[in-house]
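EI: anyone free to look at a 170-residue chain?
SC: sure, send it
EI:
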Amino acid sequence: MSDEFFRIGTRDLPVQWHANGKFEQLVDGTLDRCFDGTLIRKQPLAMVLKGLRRVDITMAGPGTMISEKARSIFERGGFSGWRTFPIKLKTKRSLKEKFFGLVVTGRTPVIGDIFQKPERIKKKNWDGSDFFLLKDGERVTGVTVVTKRVVEAAQRAGLSGAVFHPIVAE
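SC: here you go
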């Protein structure tokens, strides 16, 4: 078992995604397209969060939301395979920090069944990105994987909310 790659998981938080006052992923796929990188959004995506406790990384809806602190750590680390889009966060209490949707641009094929845990990849098929989504054939899955460098940077910085699960790299 290799400890070089980790699937990102997060603790469950009650989150509702809204864009322009409606659940766009149900209407026209806008939300999904923001996270898969096929839509580059310059205007903030509005989100409503209920019962939010302050975290740096959380999964909500079809994607991952990161804090300004996490974004800064990832930028300073020079990590590849990601970019962000702005999110306008609406909560009952005011949050001063900015949040962003994480777009993962790296892609690497999974070996065998995507539902097999832990997931498996071949190092020779890895695209070299620090952030990547697993591909099952031609279909890109929602499974976000990061390198050990990302995990170490997140842990050193004390980023909250993420759980890192090792995957097998052959």
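EI: Confidence is low (pLDDT under 50) at residues 13-29.
SC: 👍
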